Amino acid sequence: MSLPHDRESRRKLGEELKAAPEFATVEKLIEALLSEGGCPWDRARKLEDCPKYLRGELEEVLAAIESGDNENVEEELGDLLFMVAFAAKIAEKEGRMTVRGMFERILSKMVYRHPHVFGGDMEADTPGEVLANWQELKRQEKCSEGEGG
Length: 149
Description:
Elements: H1 7-18, H2 23-34, H3 40-43, H4 50-67, H5 70-93, H6 99-112, H7 127-148
């Protein structure tokens, strides 16, 4: 993404981003921050800088949940989601991974671990059965990783 050069066009871009509250827009926001002409502080971040910010945001989410303050939960979950997306974009920028690859992995893993939802061989009618299946699938993954890698 390349940022417009003039202040008014940048202001309009900010308004457009705020008007489309979805993950793809968060990604565009981060791309703008990391682009040439974006935020110097954000552009200077490395993946190794991210753990302290991720921990801080996670601690704030936990505190908000424990306090029962739902408005604060919404804000803090948003901050954590932003930080996760930011770290992913930084890792992508550094050539360590792709955001698409990250989504492919999580989608594949979650479909695999929910066979009772997505037409697999395991059934589950209770939370306990789901947990038992989940643990068995994780065990199978570890065994196959050990054999193949």
